[in-house]
Amino acid sequence: MKVYHILKIRKYFFTLLIIFNFSLCASGQQFQLPYVESVKRAQAEGINIVQLDSMYRSAVNVVDSSLAVFKTKEMSDNLIGSYQKFLRGLGKYLHENHFEWGKETKCWNRIYFNADGRVDYYLFDFKTDVRDEKTERFKELFKSYASRHKIDISAPVKFAQCGHVTFRDQ
pLDDT grade, residue 9 (50/70/90)? Predict the structure, then answer.
């Protein structure tokens, strides 16, 4: 009889633990960690960018706006404003965590967002030489930032936005 009670208590304990963990995730305080990697290494790890691009619609499309998630000028302006705010927040977060580039650092990046604005994938290609240790630290900090922040826009589908960024120390 005692074994039965112990097993029952253990079952309730694990159920409560799962509910507690779920409530923390559902509260929006922290999201799942995104995949963050250089384009070259992501491809070496088997990430198929063409496949990602087929799963995440282009946020804006300057050639054919009917293919874009954000079709009108007003919608695309809102997206660009939110995108820039997200990147400025990243810059502030890097500074608050004592990350310094040491020089102006140019980068191409493509961010794949879930429909609610969370980052699923962040692919980048530094156009300026960056030491491996600094790249690894940047990736860690980006994951940490994106696990707590999302872009201030949502869409009916997953979407991607790319562009050139220049990182500077604050």
Answer: very low
